[in-house]
Design goal:
This protein is α/β, with parallel strands linked by helices. It is built from 5 helices and 5 strands; from the N terminus they run E-H-H-E-H-E-H-E-E-H.
Length: 185
């Protein structure tokens, strides 16, 4: 079973980053495909999507400004099966993707994902004070796995903060572009 394809392009509002694909995602070729994963419900309930999408529709979210990748490409049953070497290589590859595609926000779906990426510990939910890739906002949200003990409502609330952040940043970016055009005009 091989890795699943990234859904990524330039000018994304959010690049969602998970640990790695589940076995179910590896079998289907789609992100967050495990039926116990609440990702698609969370996006919808947080107002990030106009309806609840299915894993098979993951590629359609590019049109909404959302992309998907993982820190490790190999599908496993649990993140505990990922080796230190896979994380080391994954960190490098992920930094290169973020630097190349420059999404507005990178949302790490799980504190553990961000810890592996950044090497930082004891991090808060939400926006991180310092970005690894300058100019790209890093946002940490809870994992959407059904194994997470947080209440769904608490997780959704953090993802709502992501929605508000994206709206605010996108608006500022548009205002900045218009100001530059008027100065040239």
């Amino acid at each position: 079973m091989g890795p699943i394809p990234d859904h990524i392009r330039e000018d994304l509002d959010v690049l969602f980053v998970g640990f790695n694909p589940s076995i179910r995602s590896g079998e289907t070729g789609h992100h967050y495909a495990n039926p116990n994963n609440r990702f698609w419900t969370i996006l919808y309930e947080a107002g990030l999507t106009p309806r609840k999408y299915r894993p098979e529709e993951d590629g359609q979210l590019l049109a909404l400004g959302y992309g998907f990748t993982n820190i490790v490409a190999r599908p496993t049953r649990t993140a505990a099966e990922i080796s230190r070497e896979e994380y080391r290589q994954g960190r490098i590859i992920l930094r290169e993707k973020i630097a190349r595609f420059r999404p507005l926000v990178v949302c790490f779906v799980g504190k553990g994902v961000y810890e592996q990426y950044s090497g930082r510990r004891n991090i808060p939910w939400g926006i991180q004070a310092e970005s690894i890739v300058p100019g790209v906002i890093e946002f940490v949200a809870p994992s959407s796995s059904g194994l997470v003990r947080m209440k769904l409502t608490e997780i959704v609330e953090i993802f709502r903060e992501l929605k508000e952040l994206v709206q605010r940043e996108r608006s500022q970016k548009i205002k900045h572009s218009l100001a530059i055009k008027s100065q040239k005009g």
